[in-house]
Amino acid sequence: MNRFKKLDLHKLQRSLMVCTMLVLMFGLMSNFPAKAERLKDLAGIQGVRQNQLMGYGLVVGLDGSGDQTTQTPFTVQSIISMMQQMGVTIPVGTSLQLKNVAAVMVTTSLPPFARPGQTLDITVSSMGNAKSLKGGTLLMTPLKGADNQIYAMAQGNILVGGVGASANGSQTQVNHLSVGKISGGATVERAVPSPIGHGNTIQLELNTADFSTASRVVEAINNKFGAETAAAVDGRVIQVKAPMVNDQRVAFLGALESIEVTPAQTAAKVILNARTGSIVMNQSVSLETCAVAHGNLSVVINTDNAVSQPNSLSNGQTAATANSNISITKEGGKLLMLNAGASLADVVKALNSIGATPQDLLAILQAMKSSGALRAELEII
């Protein structure tokens, strides 16, 4: 019993160490200025998108690792229906033992501008109780879109990136055996129209809605192609004037995507994984005065406002600064005092050093957010 407790303690310590490393890493990253990015990484063209496809099929040729037909009647029904279409009639009441067959769902995405004859990679996933799809062959499966129309046909040998073995009553499995892939396993049969705008304009859509970034994109486009070329519709959509001829429009879009824009700094955000205790923040997070008591832990944050008064002949300006003094205590333990100006990264690091658990971190951060002392959006996953 003690051995398992030690193992759990080691796992917790490793989790907290990883948490601290991530916090420090992102804290350091927040000190660097924003970097210019290509417009193609910040926005997409309205109407140019991929479409999800899905189909139901059968995998044959399994080495006894297929569905147990007594528990998956849909597999038997699919086999009977397929055999009837091929002119083979199975007598009513026949009990089929199909250990080498598995019912599967086939999924893929149809990229924009795909044309008939183009091949797509597909994912094959067991929907019954098949033990493994290794070595199986997917029979011809139609792939349909949301409109229930067939856009591709899939077939081929499945590649499973895993292995399983059993000996003397024990089983060993590495990776997942009930999901596999077929490279180029689907052939496009129907194209989806992907109009690049209508008339003499196109619509750019930012990946993340932000008014500041939208304004910067408009300014960068107008500086390169002339005034009034682009105009922001809202915080996400930007309307851009483009040539009418397709060839010229493609060249224009190529140049448009290469424009470099420095995006605006995103809102402060803290993401906490409640299961592992990992904490990630996208920039320096400010803390206000607060006091939190959680079990045998106490966190006190005091903000000291200081005023710097220059000499009378120095032509300087009066400046006000706010420094945070943070103290963390644990009942029966030690008192930790953090330096002035400490950030949330310092708080988390200090909590980890006195043995706070992931649940402790979650409760304390939630309390800080509820009281308004944590100046950031808190997302728990």
Automatic annotation (TrEMBL):
<comment type="subunit">
    <text>The basal body constitutes a major portion of the flagellar organelle and consists of four rings (L,P,S, and M) mounted on a central rod.</text>
</comment>
<keyword id="KW-0969">Cilium</keyword>
<dbReference type="InterPro" id="IPR001782">
    <property type="entry name" value="Flag_FlgI"/>
</dbReference>
<dbReference type="Pfam" id="PF02119">
    <property type="entry name" value="FlgI"/>
</dbReference>
<keyword id="KW-0966">Cell projection</keyword>
<comment type="function">
    <text>Assembles around the rod to form the L-ring and probably protects the motor/basal body from shearing forces during rotation.</text>
</comment>
<protein>
    <recommendedName>
        <fullName>Flagellar P-ring protein</fullName>
    </recommendedName>
</protein>
<keyword id="KW-0975">Bacterial flagellum</keyword>
<comment type="similarity">
    <text>Belongs to the FlgI family.</text>
</comment>
<keyword id="KW-0282">Flagellum</keyword>
<keyword id="KW-0732">Signal</keyword>
